[in-house]
Amino acid sequence: MGKNFQIEEKGFPDLPEMMLATISALKEIGGSAALRELDEQVVEMEDISEDEQGIMMPDGKYRKLNYYLSWSRTFLKRGGALENSARGVWALTDAGEKITSIEETRDIHKQVNAEERERAKQKRLAKKKGLIETEPSHGSALDFQDDDAEEWQQGLLNVVREMEADAFERLSQRLLREAGFIKVEVRGKSGDGGIDGVGVLRVNLVSFQVYFQCKKWKGSVGSKEIRDFRGALQGRADKGLFITTGNFTSQASEEATRDGAIAIDLIDGERLCELLRQFEFGVKTEMIEKVIVNSDWFKSI
């Protein structure tokens, strides 16, 4: 299958084309998928290279591919073609299942843009009349306000990336212990072939020695890094674990599970955030009570 869109250092990808690619990918894998699975399916179907996957946005915070795929999902959601759960599973709606052409996604793109301009206009008028307070600027015309999971995760990753390297290693050590590992040791700056630590994982009556590497990255971990890590594991470990604040290219994911080689499990930034929230490491989830006033009820008195 040929490419429907291009990811380049300069310029903008064709968002309606990315929207159509997103729908095609969801149809290919059964109509619903977790975020990472969906992105990987788009990469495979569109034949996106590792170099293209690694291109960053100018601010250096987001991968360009994932940034615009996120906006593709947002436009499709606002246009009624997609829906997503609190756990980050995206699914086609009945309307989305029927979309087959670029003309349809271009129509959604135009419709959502028109609605956004109207909302912005009404907001400006309300501010002018003093009906609402002025809100602080987010410093960018684009945000992830309709994708709460990605918004809080990116904020968390920004905090984690500010940690010193040894502190991030200690955080990984605590995380592994919480997940059931024992005898978890951090090797620090040993220069041991990229190995940052080792632990033992017990599964019923069997124990596995697992060496891990943890890297604070903003961009993509490629297949080369996985091969280099596996080279350091030869003759020493039963399994490997690679933890990063960044992402793994689809080629890196394939290399990690290559037949006949030591298996390497991957924890990317998204999964890391979910684990930190699960074990409440610096992340707290609060349930906020919402009060709704039903004016129709009062009219019925």
What integer is the average pLDDT?
83
Cross-sheet strand order for the largest sheet: 4-5-6-8-10
**What's the shape?**
globular
Overall structural domain count: 2
Secondary-structure element order, N to C? HEHHHEEHHHHEEEEHEEHEHH
Strand count: 10
Distance between the termini: 63 Å
The helicity comes to 40-55%
Radius of gyration: 22 Å
Second CATH tier, the architecture of the largest domain: Orthogonal Bundle
CATH topology of the largest domain: Arc Repressor Mutant, subunit A
Structural class category: alpha/beta
Low-confidence region ranges: 132-147
CATH class of the largest domain: Mainly Alpha
DSSP summary: helix tally: 12
Main beta-sheet annotation? 5 strands, mixed
What does this entry show, briefly?
Helix content is 46%, strand content 16%. It is of the alpha/beta class and 301 residues long. The protein has two domains: 1-131, Arc Repressor Mutant, subunit A (Orthogonal Bundle); 164-278, Trna Endonuclease, Chain: A, domain 1.
Descriptive report:
Helix 1 (15-28) crosses helix 4 and helix 9 packs parallel to helix 10 (250-256). The chain is built from twelve helices and ten strands. Helix content is 46%, strand content 16%. With 301 residues, it is α/β, with parallel strands linked by helices. Strands 4-5-6-8-10 form a five-stranded mixed β-sheet, sandwiched between helices. It has a three-stranded antiparallel β-sheet with strand order 1-3-2. Strands 7-9 form a two-stranded parallel sheet.
